[in-house]
Amino acid sequence: MYEILLAVDEEDEHAEAQVDAVVDLPGKDEIHAHVFHDFQDNPTGASIGQLASARHAKDTLEAAGIEVTLHETSGDPSEAILDTARDLDVDAICVASRKRTPTGKALFGSVTQAVILGSDRPVLVCGAEQ
Question: Which of 23, 25, 28, 108 is a good FRET partner for 43, with 20 to 30 A between their CA atoms?
């Protein structure tokens, strides 16, 4: 079983790009996707099941025949992603990148960059279609 952590944010387009990338991986019948979200500020006590992007990711992955588990934490997103990847012993991490200006295209977002630089496993970076 190939374990992959999809670290989703609140953007549906980002989650869709991540799901598309995972569904296109070879051997999708052997993939277990861990859909994960880190709540930085959660005064209402929302759970990952209430997050539209996470629900969309879960439903689409399951429709493609991929086993899915939902996970959530609260804190610093990049640290939470890396900690969760280690705790779950996933084989890879899938994150989304944000659109940047021409000058900023050479740089990833701070969370994505921190995950890439801090990870001891492969990181798949997905960009949403414009």
Answer: 108
115 and 36 Cβ atoms separated by less than 8 Å:
no
4 Cβ contact partners less than 8 Å away, ≥ 6 residues apart? 22, 25, 31, 32, 33, 34, 90, 91, 92, 93, 94, 124
pLDDT in tens, 65-85: 999 999 999 889 999 999 999
What mean pLDDT is predicted for residues 29-52? 89
Angstrom distance (rounded) from CA 130 to CA 92: 25
Does the pTM of the predicted model rise above 0.70? yes
- Which one is the CATH code of 2-127: 3.40.640.10, 3.40.50.620, 3.40.50.1820, 3.40.1080.20? 3.40.50.620
- Quickly count: other Cβ atoms within 10 Å of residue 26's Cβ: 8
Q: 129, 123, 126: which is closest to 5 by C-alpha?
A: 123
Residue that wins the pLDDT comparison between 27 and 101: 27
